[in-house]
């Protein structure tokens, strides 16, 4: 029979574990602070209005990020507009409407597995499904279907090719499992008594979900969506596979335009030997962080507006 531990021993172990957690947390925060300070120190000198409004250049003093900045905005907006409604709707169906059958268990297992798939695999899938559409329209330069004016705002081409739309849909595949899983967890956290009370009063399943469950789960859903979009903003490997350019001189004017994104531009500048491009990469990282905080700020604002008390 094991000898019971004394109260002093357990208290010492608890305090030791607490101190280990605090030390690990402080070390991580310290490393992050040092990294941010070094980036700010290196990048603030070249961060000005000309840098934000200039196009790419082979000379560091003339280079800017207007093209990849707008490319990131276009791609992330398309990704969010498609991934969030699709992911939330899928999670609602699986949690609130679908019966617990073998098929739904297989689907749930596959969603969990897809959340851990490397993003470059989604890039290959996006290249096949969106950029080339499985070769259904041929492989030649003139193959496909066009609708609208290529220089106008409303223009569509099938297949999508290396376009903003193909990049946004590819990032949608990357974050879709994360949105579904986080939404399911938010729905599971809602007390079952809310559903039972609404159903007992004569509400349908959809009325219960729309009026009770979904409003109460909005904070958790938006938190997961913020994390998913934060990942999408920083992705570069799947977009590189789809065909994102590293050197462009024009911003996108429609969803079929060629594009570049900030992570690829940062990578392009960081690998160059000139010190001037390294400073530009640090400035681009600062802009990337600002864009990330802006997207997160909008998501937090929407979460606060849509949040409703349970009682």
- Number of distinct beta strands: 2
Question: Helix proportion of residues, in percent?
Answer: 55-70%
Domain module tally? 1
- CATH homologous group name: MetI-like
What would you report as the Rg, rounded to the nearest angstrom? 24 Å
Number of helices: 11
Strand content: under 5%
Structure class:
mainly alpha
Determine the mean pLDDT: 87
CATH architecture: Orthogonal Bundle
- The fold-level CATH name is MetI-like fold
Uncertain spans, ≥5 residues at pLDDT below 50? none
Largest sheet: 2 strands, antiparallel
Oligomer type = single chain
Task: Report the span from N to C terminus.
Answer: 50 Å
| CATH class category name | Mainly Alpha
Shape: globular
Strand order of the largest sheet: 1-2
Order of helices and strands: HHHHHEEHHHHHH
Question: What would the keywords be for this entry?
Answer:
mainly alpha, 2 strands, MetI-like fold, two-stranded antiparallel sheet, 311 residues, single chain
Q: Can you characterise this structure?
A:
The protein is mainly alpha-helical and 311 residues long. It has one domain: MetI-like (MetI-like fold, Orthogonal Bundle), CATH 1.10.3720. It has helices at residues 7-43, 49-53, 66-97, 102-114, 119-131, 164-188, 192-200, 205-234, 237-242, 262-270, 275-306, and strands spanning 145-148, 155-158. A two-stranded antiparallel ribbon has the order 1-2. It is globular.
